[in-house]
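Please fill in the sequence for the structure shown.

STRUCTURE ENCODING:
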């Protein structure tokens, strides 16, 4: 989309609005700001590198104008230079996102940048996740049409955002979703609710390779449904991607497929969730040679439980697009109040088990006379599970209100983590860890609270045993102060048995929030929804400001 043309259209439209003297409603302007700054000091004990700038900054601000069925917005981004752990290609500043959108009856039109997701994202998800440095927004045209109640049709075409530029490939897609119960009044009263949908997405990238005859157009299709009745809900989606040789799959000419199914049951005091996901060769990018998190067209959600406690999240699972089959089950149960085990306030218990294995891959026989052998890769039927375990997680959580002033959470976890496979490394093998967590909150008064969190991680692999202690004081609604120490006391190298001490304080007033911290950050992996990035070790101050208006 031509930036100059779009800017001109916005200026003309705004001028038109303000030229209407008889109109009292000129629309509204909203937005938000986020700024993260960090200082760096070299620290050889934790492998924190020297940084020439001494301080780096990530910042962005959204400004959105709305009036009736029209909206337009821009996002200004500045990276001077980008924080460690983010791609250096972000360095600089500029308009990272701009769009205009309007509704004309049943039709909604968006030009410029936009985010979109078809179904669960197996073949299309354009989204932003600042903590991971991901922004694969599409730049082009999106149409949404709702011909009748219960039916939504979506069409998109554009190029994917790649830092301050755009990728080489063109993405096209169409999606349709039907809510059966909304089609007529008779169906709307039915207890069984049904939603069905289907998608098709294709990408185009010119082939200039002198050896390989890469397909220039690659398509993928998906079908999905959701059925709910009373306490039971079932959702499922199947996706198929035609042969798509790329850097991710070592340029094999093989189709890919994926299926994701979730079944849930809930009633008062009881909840059960079962999830199943199988992936095979489902990396889908608009550029064949792309790496890291660049220009991903689709999204492969993790099947495992997402942990928030620091040591529990030390070994997070990352979805494996080249092949995995996983199962996740979770049971929530509340012991009734005023019973022997439930106590005065009742007790919440959850048990979770998740496991992800490799898929079986039958190698295709290769003709030794072939000029370029093994282009077909392998064969793997759907749900064909191999014995190799990538990840296993068993955890039990107990959450209990002891009195009006005390709350307690106890967690035990047993994890098995194939570090080489998940992080693309070699020589580390499988990490087996036992993790224990105790989290207690004491409510001093209506505005004052004190929280203590203790964690321990025991393992004979990787960097050995860890312990963590956190104390947090909250003065509601404005202030909080937290101090914690992570101690790698079991590191096999005595020199690196290091304390990672950190002091943080924050102040919130209205829609503004300020936070400053000082301390050491351990090297590790940060994941959100099965997508991860490396976080390097650092030592210094961090300062964050967020504001909305």
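FILLED IN BY: designer on duty
SEQUENCE:
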């Amino acid at each position: 989309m031509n930036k100059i043309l779009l800017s001109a259209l916005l200026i003309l439209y705004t001028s038109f609005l303000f030229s209407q003297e008889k109109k009292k409603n000129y629309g509204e302007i909203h937005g938000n700001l986020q700024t993260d700054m960090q200082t760096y000091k070299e620290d050889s004990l934790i492998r924190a590198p020297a940084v020439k700038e001494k301080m780096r900054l990530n910042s962005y601000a959204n400004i959105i104008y709305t009036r009736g069925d029209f909206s337009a917005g821009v996002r200004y981004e500045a990276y001077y230079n980008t924080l460690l752990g983010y791609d250096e290609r972000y360095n600089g500043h500029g308009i990272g996102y701009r769009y205009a959108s309007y509704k004309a009856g049943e039709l909604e039109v968006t030009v410029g940048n936009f985010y979109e997701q078809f179904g669960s994202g197996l073949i299309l998800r354009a989204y932003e996740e600042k903590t991971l440095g991901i922004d694969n927004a599409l730049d082009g045209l999106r149409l949404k049409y709702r011909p009748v109640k219960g039916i939504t049709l979506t069409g998109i075409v554009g190029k994917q955002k790649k830092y301050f530029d755009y990728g080489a490939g063109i993405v096209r897609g169409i999606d349709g979703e039907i809510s059966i119960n909304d089609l007529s009044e008779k169906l709307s009263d039915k207890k069984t609710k049904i939603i069905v949908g289907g998608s098709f997405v294709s990408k185009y990238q010119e082939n200039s390779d002198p050896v390989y005859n890469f397909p220039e157009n690659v398509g993928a299709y998906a079908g999905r449904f959701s059925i709910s009745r009373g306490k039971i809900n079932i959702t499922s989606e199947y996706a198929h991607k035609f042969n798509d040789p790329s850097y991710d799959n070592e340029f094999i000419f093989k189709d890919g497929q994926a299926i994701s199914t979730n079944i849930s049951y809930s009633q008062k005091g009881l909840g059960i969730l079962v999830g199943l996901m199988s992936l095979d060769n489902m990396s889908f990018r608009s550029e064949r040679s792309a790496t890291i998190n660049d220009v991903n067209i689709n999204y492969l959600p993790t099947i495992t439980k997402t942990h928030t406690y620091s040591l529990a999240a030390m070994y997070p699972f990352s979805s494996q697009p080249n092949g995995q089959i996983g199962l996740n089950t979770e049971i929530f149960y509340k012991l009734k109040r005023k019973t022997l085990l439930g106590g005065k306030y009742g007790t919440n218990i959850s048990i979770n088990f998740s496991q992800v294995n490799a898929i079986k891959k039958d190698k295709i026989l290769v003709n030794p006379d072939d000029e370029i052998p093994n282009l077909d890769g392998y064969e793997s039927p759907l749900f064909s599970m191999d014995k190799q375990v990538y990840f296993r997680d068993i955890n039990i959580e107990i959450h209990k209100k002891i009195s009006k002033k005390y709350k307690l959470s106890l967690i035990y976890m047993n994890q098995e983590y194939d570090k080489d496979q998940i992080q693309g490394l070699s020589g580390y093998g499988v990490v087996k860890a036992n993790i224990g967590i105790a989290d207690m909150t004491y409510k001093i008064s209506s505005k004052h609270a004190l929280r203590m969190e203790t964690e321990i991680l025991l393992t004979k692999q990787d960097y050995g045993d860890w312990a963590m202690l956190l104390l947090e004081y909250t003065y509601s609604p404005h202030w909080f102060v937290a101090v914690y120490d992570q101690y790698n006391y079991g590191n096999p190298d005595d020199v690196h048995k290091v304390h990672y001490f950190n002091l943080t304080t924050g102040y919130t007033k209205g829609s503004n929030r300020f936070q400053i911290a000082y301390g050491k950050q351990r090297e590790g992996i940060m994941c959100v929804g099965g997508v991860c990035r490396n976080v390097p070790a650092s030592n210094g101050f961090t300062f964050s400001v967020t504001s909305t208006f």
